[in-house]
Structure formats: structure tokens, C-alpha cells
Write a structure and sequence with these properties.
Helix 4 crosses helix 6. The longest helix has 13 residues. The protein is α/β, with parallel strands linked by helices.
């Protein structure tokens, strides 16, 4: 990819919010020339054992935007997360903005609609979201233009969002010493993930890359920002001279050893609904547990 539909000399103001419970990093991305901003990959807090939902993480982001005098224009989901719940509707109620996700959300909704035995009232057309992005689609955050890059492999609906000289990688990449995300969820593909990573690494070397997760490998402090150049040189899964075949072999063997994420069951049900908690026949918030379904 050599032609970019945005001005990559623009330097958005990026502020990270780390959620220790899920090792998720959410972002406020602000236009340096206006109050306009976006939120990337928000988190809704859940005590799954108690069935209790709270909003401390989201409230911190809302408070910060208010402190900055910001105007929230977009609430972006890089994909349907399997390890944390989105707070998008809660934040939208507080600050406005459009909720956006990749158009392949419909594939995810169809797949997990069956797994969770959702009825016909569950729409599988992405209509729960305000915007469905196709590969290369552009959108505005104040005076900044952003574009969505389709990057399947981890899930069928993953997208990396490029905003000025910053790219928000979702789970397509981890920090160089963390490598890459798993590919064994329904619709995942190690080969597709490798191709997607190469697509991201075709961005200019100086592009800032912001991760959605970090787990502090080998005991290091939590980090979330790197560059394309650093990933190309040092990523332990795809950097240097590692081939597509090497990656597929490693990723397939590694994924077979991984346990399911602790919050995958509530996360999928909520996130495929754009952050809304499903309800039972009486309208009460209710989550399902499919037995031997994942």
C-alpha cells in the first residue's frame, strides 16, 4: 500500500487508558486543531462472577474529554472483542458521537448468533452500529481525516484505523516482544493475519502504532506505543526474515495451547450488539452460557 487517503503528517493528540482487569488499552484521539476527538476500543467493567456491570473505566474517559472541552465525534471498535466488553452506548449517551465498526461485523453476528441461539429479533445486518466501514473508507475527526484498513485474521471483522501519523492496531499486532494475536476463533486465519500484518507494516516506517492489549512479557512494564519500523525489525512473530509459512506453523501450534479468554462469553454477546447487554423476554439484562459451544 503506497497511496494513503489521509495526510499522514498530521499528529493527533493520543491519550491512553489502561484497564488492568483485561489488559486493554483504550484511547482518546484528539484533533490538534479543534475540540473534535474519537474514542478507540472503550471498556465496560464487569464482575462476571457477580453478574455486575459498572463504568469506572468509561467514566474516566468521559471525564477527561469534558476536562479537555472535547467534542466526541466517533466511538470506534477495531473489532468484536472477545476479552472485554465495549462501553460504546454508555459513552454515546454521555457525549454523543457515532459508533463505528468494520462491515464484516455481519459475519461475526451470523456466526455467534447461531452459537448463542439468538432469535430472529437479533439483527445480523450491523444495524446496531451507526457506521460500517469498508476497506479504505475515510471519515473526519474535526479537521483530521482518518481511514479504515481491513485486517482480517484474528477475526473476520478486524480493522486498523489510521488517523494522521497514528494507527490503532486493535489485535492485529501486539508490541514487538508480544508478537501477534491468536487466530483460532471462528472465522480466524493465521494466513490472513500474516497478510494483514504485512499490509499494516507497509505504512511509512515512522507511523506510530498503538496496541489494544499488552501483557508485559517477561515482567516488563505495560507499554502500548511502537512504530512500523520497530515492528518490522523486532516483532518476535513476523519481524526480520520470518516467512508466511513460518508464521502459520507457529501461530497454529501456539493457538492450540491457549485457553479461552475469561470474558469471551459475555464479551461476544455484548460486543456484537455494539455494546448493548442482551435482555430476556421480560426486558431484563441477561447473558447466556452456551455449553460446549465454543
Amino acid at each position: 500500500m503506497t497511496d494513503y487517503p489521509v495526510d499522514m503528517s498530521v499528529k493527533p493528540e493520543v491519550e491512553a487508558f489502561f484497564d488492568e482487569a483485561t489488559n486493554t488499552i483504550s484511547y482518546i484521539v484528539k484533533d490538534p486543531t479543534s475540540p473534535a476527538c474519537a474514542i478507540i476500543d472503550s471498556v465496560m467493567d464487569i464482575d462476571y462472577a457477580a453478574g455486575r456491570i459498572t463504568y469506572d473505566h468509561a467514566d474516566a474517559m468521559v471525564a477527561r474529554i469534558n476536562e479537555l472541552g472535547g467534542k466526541l465525534e466517533w466511538i470506534i471498535e477495531t473489532h468484536v472483542h472477545a476479552d472485554h466488553l465495549s462501553a460504546a452506548p454508555y459513552i454515546q449517551q454521555k457525549l454523543g458521537g457515532k459508533i463505528g465498526v468494520g462491515e464484516k461485523i455481519m459475519v461475526v453476528q451470523e456466526t455467534f448468533g447461531k452459537i448463542f441461539n439468538e432469535g430472529t429479533e437479533f439483527q445480523r445486518d450491523g444495524s446496531q452500529f451507526d457506521a460500517l466501514f469498508k476497506d479504505g473508507d475515510t471519515y473526519q475527526i474535526g479537521n483530521m481525516q482518518a481511514f479504515a484498513m481491513y485486517t482480517p485474521g484474528h477475526t473476520p471483522a478486524c480493522m486498523v484505523h489510521v488517523i494522521g501519523n497514528a494507527a490503532f492496531a486493535g489485535d492485529t499486532l501486539f508490541m514487538p516482544d508480544g508478537g501477534s494475536a491468536r487466530c483460532d476463533f471462528p472465522g480466524g486465519s493465521a494466513g490472513e493475519l500474516y497478510d494483514s500484518i504485512m499490509k499494516v507494516l507497509s505504512l511509512p516506517d515512522e507511523t506510530r502504532l498503538f496496541m489494544c492489549h499488552d501483557y508485559g512479557p517477561n515482567g516488563r512494564a505495560i507499554e502500548w506505543e511502537t512504530t512500523v519500523a520497530e515492528q518490522k525489525a523486532n516483532n518476535i512473530h513476523v519481524g526480520g526474515d520470518r516467512t508466511r509459512e513460518d508464521f502459520i506453523k507457529f501461530r497454529t501450534e501456539r493457538d492450540a495451547q491457549l485457553a479461552m479468554p475469561k470474558l469471551i462469553i459475555p464479551s461476544l454477546q455484548v460486543n456484537m450488539r455494539a455494546g448493548e447487554v442482551p435482555t430476556d423476554a421480560n426486558g431484563n439484562p441477561m447473558l447466556k452460557v452456551p455449553v460446549n459451544g465454543l
